[in-house]
Design a protein that fits this description.
Two copies of one chain form a homodimer. Chain A contains ten helices and twelve strands. Chain A is of the alpha/beta class. The longest helix of chain A is centred in the C-terminal third of the chain and has 24 residues, at 257-280. Chains A and B meet through helix 1, helix 3, helix 4, helix 6 and helix 7 of A and helix 1, helix 3, helix 4, helix 6 and helix 7 of B.
Chain lengths: 352, 352
């Protein structure tokens, strides 16, 4: 139709399936297999719902101040959003506004090129080496910005913080965004370097290690000037993104450090156990430091395993994309869920 | 600094003040003076917080299907977002992507030009006449899109739906967005015309008439093709914008029609009462069909009244902008709050 000529056309991001029915072993979207802290439940139960008539605090101060205490930075160094996707999308819009291409790995979170397309940001992907490692020289060329996830997704590979620091230091003319969605599962954060590099921004999320994907909370930490620019763009978009339940529940989750440590510890233990089991079944795995493993079988194509698992109500993630089309990304569930997976695979491989 | 050359600079929207302390008669941000439906409270109390570990349904089906039933449209005709600001921002990005300027009134919601600036959309404002009415010929010129709030803000003036229909019909080459944030307070919706005009989109919100500003829910209704484009852009931005509490609480609010009617009825009654009182005190008012009035005093400058009110803990909204810098926008509070306002003004005008 006539009005369609003015429409922005775009290829949207495709998220992992969310099966409607129960009985599924859901290891496909990197959710936490454990519930959020019970303190989150208490806060929601006690929420004064009458207060919902008012706009929420647009600075989400209760949450921001708690994050500031937790990470030992100033409140002005923190930006919060509707999941880290919101934070990253706003960062792309804010910081990747030059003419030169931005850089990110060729195998990485598949939202980066989607954001670049929708905001018309030129980009170039830098090939990981055969072990899915970053080649730092790739990021020492002229660019309009850099985004690197660490640990990377879907590989789970943790890059050495020293290598990333070299990249940040080599690019004073670009904002370097380190996407640490999975860092709590045994990775090393770049946060201690924020004070040293005004062009470094770290993004994290409550969706994985804090088990709050359903609440939508992500955040960025950087120097105040950089965060100020990000806020300006955010406040040109939507003043009130963080609803009252998210602000209060996010704060409660942060304050329950004991529960957080326990949950993350269990996931790490299960991951290491699952790695050994899968190796025993003929899989090759990266040394994932995230809440998933990235696995390829020595003889059975990943696509076939993916289908067999799905038919048996075990959901994992598979991409039919160059270089990773023989790998599966398997979220770490409970020990019981992983035992179900391993038992099925053992039998499947034997019977095949 | 060096990296700043790639940064998008923008003048953010400035929202009304959110006073931290209590004891304020808050008539400055068009919030509902009554709480949301008690059903909202029940749903939040009963929320299975453990379910927050999972990503929410990215299509927000429970909320969308309830909206579809309520407004007698198909679920595919509905788009939901983080407040109507999110919905409008996404619409600007999606539909106003041509080279020609988009059109909107010169006196209107002050986010429109902010979105146009941040997305680099050329725009032209069309002057309202002396009675703050739209001049329809202004919208029958070449354009890249049209956005009109009805009732308008901050004037509260309701435009005749027939006039708006002429504008929609005259612009088959443009998407026409009618922003009906305030329509529930006695306005007439364009929704019955959605089926007739494929280029018409209506946007509404839960923040005003449903008293849920703190929860962040807005929505758009249009034909399925148009909504499909909007979803593509949205899914290029953030897959999961609506958290679980918003989906469930929004549904609960919609289903409590009796409470909604009662609340809206009380606000309309109080508005009409307040109009008479203010007229008696020497104010000229538009015939507002929203949850606020737009008032100018015959002898005292608006700015002085604004200051005097603020010093006495009564917050209203004032803009130092051409054509409206002698007006106040006063949100309709409870009858008691409006009596406090009127009593103060009566005394203030007498003593002055």
């Amino acid at each position: 139709m006539d009005w369609e000529k003015n429409v922005r056309r775009t290829e949207p991001y495709v998220a992992g399936e969310q099966p409607g029915q129960g009985g599924v072993v859901k290891l496909n979207t990197n959710e936490c297999p454990y519930p959020p802290s019970p303190k989150v439940g208490e806060v929601l139960k006690g929420l004064d719902f009458e207060g919902l008539r008012l706009y929420p605090d647009m600075d989400a101060k209760e949450l921001v101040n708690t994050l500031a205490d937790y990470y030992h930075v100033k409140p002005g160094q923190i930006f919060v959003g509707v999941g880290s996707d919101d934070v990253l999308a706003m960062s792309f819009l804010t910081f990747f506004n030059g003419g030169k291409p931005i850089l990110f790995p060729d195998i990485t979170y598949s939202f980066y090129d989607v954001w670049a397309e929708v905001f018309r940001i030129p980009y170039r992907t830098c090939p990981l080496d055969g072990d899915f490692r970053i080649q730092k020289e790739d990021y020492q060329k002229p660019n309009g910005g850099i985004v690197i996830p660490n640990p990377n997704a879907p590989t789970g590979v943790m890059e050495d913080v020293g290598v990333l620091e070299e990249i940040v230091a080599a690019n004073p003319g670009s904002v370097v965004v380190i996407d640490e969605a999975y860092v709590d599962f045994g990775g090393e954060s770049m946060l201690p370097l924020i004070g040293r590099y005004p062009n470094l921004m770290v993004v994290q999320t409550f969706s994985k290690s804090r088990a709050m994907a359903g609440m939508r909370i992500g955040f960025a930490i950087a120097n105040e000037k950089l965060i100020g620019y990000l806020k300006d763009v955010k406040f040109s978009f939507n003043s009130y993104t963080m609803g009252l339940p998210a602000i209060l529940a996010g704060k409660a989750a942060l304050l329950d450090q004991a529960y957080f440590k326990e949950t993350v510890g269990k996931i790490i233990d299960t991951r290491e156990w699952a790695k050994e089991q899968l190796k025993g079944l003929g899989f090759t795995l990266t040394d994932s430091k995230s809440n998933f493993v990235f696995a390829s079988h020595r003889s059975i194509p990943a696509r076939e395993i993916f289908q067999a698992l799905k038919e048996n109500n075990i959901y994992v993630r598979y991409w039919d994309k160059p270089r990773i089309n023989n790998h599966l990304r398997i979220t770490i569930g409970t020990r019981e869920q992983m035992e179900t997976l391993v038992a099925f695979l053992e039998n499947y491989i034997k019977e095949r």
